[in-house]
């Protein structure tokens, strides 16, 4: 590293170190204020998250009337997310993910981690820059056609930006000469950026050229064991969508260019979905249209039910691969007889950024975003009265409430924002809060000044408004689940 850069790094590191090691300075003084841009620590207090300081550049302008926002608004989630300053378009199919989106995505990643590790998954991270040699060995270098982003390094060697990592992970496992049947099933997964040269990127984060995906790969001793692993991953996916409160159907699917024998898609029914599904009205059967013959109108499972067509957004995909890749790359283990045997594989994808956008797509109203509660960027927004209004003195109560919530309810630490834009009316700020979709909005006004203080609470997911005492409020918010 060049000396100047090294110096800069050292200085940056010392600064970072200081902030991490000495968090008390935030509490006891205002000297470090600049280091926490979204919060303004008043002396002697914990920092409060202020709406006026959050970096959301579009700042809730009406996108339809705003020519400064580039990109064609092709669906609700894209329009709402751009309008709320959650994403910002860069080039076709590529977006800036702004801070609120990152909060939401990090929560989603934690839920995914819990579910994947719950079935024995171990997280790793593989290079995005994949050598063409691997892809040529599996013959997918040619098979993938124009979807693959290809590039050359300075020595003229071919690479691609990985859209999926069957080749890479199988090679990795093949390198371990001592893998024993006792270590199987082995489930390895990563959550990383993926690249696909989409001919027509559209629908915001739903069909981009650069996106986040969770991809897991399983290695088993036998076909039977591989099917059990396959089943446990499908169950984990179902649990994940249940926890998010998203209705998801598991449909039989085509195996496409991944290869293999058994495959399912996890689809969120939605009008803008690009996949056509056939769902039985009588039993649990559902399939992607691509896998069915075009004249089939009766259910192949129960035989009596009629198949109804609906559209879906594909958010997950599972494949049983058999020995397709393990055979090519020689991923073997030593079996109970101490003989080398080829592993049985499966691969399992989840579109992380796609789940975010799809959730916004199916849960939101036309006017505002509604999140699955677990992954909302912030859980609570507190609105103090307008500056100079008759109930101005409630402002202090609002600030105290934000402090108290963070102290009394540990799961809400860092989840409560104060809309300090008190030059705006409560009505205007309520409208903004509705657009952003905080699960709970608390209005601190006249009621808070009464002898028995009352707070107006708007539960945005249900559309309900309730008036609660301080204890009632703590009780309600105490039940909020965060991750
Ligand atoms: Zn049926």
Secondary structure layout:
Elements: H1 3-21, H2 24-28, E1 49-50, H3 76-83, E2 87-89, E3 95-97, H4 99-118, E4 122-123, E5 129-131, H5 132-137, H6 140-143, E6 149-152, E7 158-161, H7 166-174, E8 186-195, E9 210-220, H8 223-244, E10 249-252, E11 262-269, E12 275-280, E13 286-288, E14 307-322, H9 324-329, E15 332-334, E16 340-342, E17 344-351, H10 352-363, E18 380-383, H11 394-408, E19 416-418, H12 426-436, E20 440-443, H13 446-449, E21 454-459, E22 464-469, H14 470-478
Parallel strand pairs: 1-19, 4-8, 18-19, 18-20
Antiparallel strand pairs: 2-3, 5-7, 6-7, 8-9, 9-17, 10-11, 11-14, 12-13, 12-14, 14-17, 15-16, 20-21, 21-22
Helix pairs in contact: 3-10, 4-8
Zinc ion (ZN) binds near residues 280, 285, 299, 301 and 302.
Model description:
The protein is an alpha+beta fold. The protein has 2 domains: 102-362, Bira Bifunctional Protein, Domain 2 (BirA Bifunctional Protein, domain 2), CATH 3.30.930; 378-478, Rossmann fold (3-Layer(aba) Sandwich). The chain has helices at 3-21, 24-28, 76-83, 99-118, 132-137, 140-143, 166-174, 223-244, 324-329, 352-363, 394-408, 426-436, 446-449, 470-478, and strands at residues 49-50, 87-89, 95-97, 122-123, 129-131, 149-152, 158-161, 186-195, 210-220, 249-252, 262-269, 275-280, 286-288, 307-322, 332-334, 340-342, 344-351, 380-383, 416-418, 440-443, 454-459, 464-469. Strands 4, 8, 9, 10, 11, 12, 13, 14 and 17 form a 9-stranded mixed β-sheet that branches. Strands 1-19-18-20-21-22 form a 6-stranded mixed β-sheet, with helices on both faces. The chain is elongated. Residues 17-37 have low confidence and may be disordered. Bound molecules: zinc ion. Residues 106-372 form the Aminoacyl-transfer RNA synthetases class-II family profile domain. Its EC number is 6.1.1.15. GO terms for molecular function: ATP binding; proline-tRNA ligase activity. Keywords: Aminoacyl-tRNA synthetase, ATP-binding, Ligase, Mitochondrion, Nucleotide-binding, Protein biosynthesis, Transit peptide. It comes from Oreochromis niloticus.
């Amino acid at each position: 590293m060049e000396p100047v850069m090294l110096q800069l790094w050292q200085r940056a590191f010392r600064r970072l170190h200081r902030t991490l090691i000495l968090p008390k300075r935030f509490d006891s003084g205002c000297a470090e204020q600049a280091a926490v841009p979204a919060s303004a620590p008043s002396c002697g207090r914990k920092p409060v998250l202020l709406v006026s300081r959050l970096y959301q550049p579009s700042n809730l302008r009406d996108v339809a009337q705003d020519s400064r926002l580039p990109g064609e608004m092709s669906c609700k989630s894209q329009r709402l997310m751009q309008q709320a300053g959650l994403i910002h378009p860069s080039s076709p199919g590529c977006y800036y993910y702004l801070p609120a989106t990152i909060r939401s995505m990090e929560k989603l990643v934690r839920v995914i981690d819990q579910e994947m590790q719950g079935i024995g998954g171990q997280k790793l991270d593989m290079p995005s820059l994949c050598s063409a040699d691997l892809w040529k060995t599996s013959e997918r270098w040619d098979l993938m056609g124009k979807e693959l982003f290809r590039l050359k390094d300075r020595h003229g060697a071919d690479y691609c930006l990985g859209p999926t990592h069957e080749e890479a992970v199988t090679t990795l496992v093949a390198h371990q000469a001592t893998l024993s049947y006792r270590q199987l099933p082995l489930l390895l997964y990563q959550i990383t950026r993926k690249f696909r040269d989409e001919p027509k990127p559209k629908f915001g984060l739903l069909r981009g050229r650069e996106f986040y995906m969770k991809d897991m790969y399983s290695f088993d001793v036998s076909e039977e064991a591989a099917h059990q692993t396959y089943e446990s991953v499908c169950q984990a996916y179902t649990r994940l969508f249940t926890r998010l409160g998203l209705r998801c159907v598991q449909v039989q699917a085509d195996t496409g260019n991944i290869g293999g024998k058994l495959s399912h898609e996890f689809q969120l029914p939605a009008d803008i979905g690009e996949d056509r599904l056939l769902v039985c009205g009588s039993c649990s059967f559902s399939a992607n249209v691509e896998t069915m013959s075009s004249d089939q109108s009766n259910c192949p499972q129960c035989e009596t039910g009629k198949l109804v067509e609906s559209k879906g957004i594909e958010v997950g995909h599972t494949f049983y691969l058999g020995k397709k890749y393990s055979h090519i790359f020689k991923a073997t283990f030593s079996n109970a007889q101490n003989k080398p045997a080829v592993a049985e594989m499966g691969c399992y994808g989840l579109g992380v950024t796609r789940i975010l956008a799809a959730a916004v797509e199916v849960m939101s109203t036309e006017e505002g975003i509604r999140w699955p509660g677990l992954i909302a960027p912030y859980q609570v927004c507190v609105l103090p009265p307008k500056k100079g209004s008759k109930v101005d003195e409630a402002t202090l109560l609002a600030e105290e409430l934000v402090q108290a919530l963070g102290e009394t309810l540990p799961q809400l630490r860092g989840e409560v924002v104060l809309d300090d834009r008190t030059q705006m009316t409560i009505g205007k700020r309520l409208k903004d809060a509705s657009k952003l979709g905080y699960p709970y909005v608390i209005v601190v006004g006249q009621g808070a000044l009464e002898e028995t203080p009352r707070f107006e609470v708007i539960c945005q997911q249900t559309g309900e408004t309730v008036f609660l005492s301080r204890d009632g409020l703590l009780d309600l918010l105490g039940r909020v689940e965060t991750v």
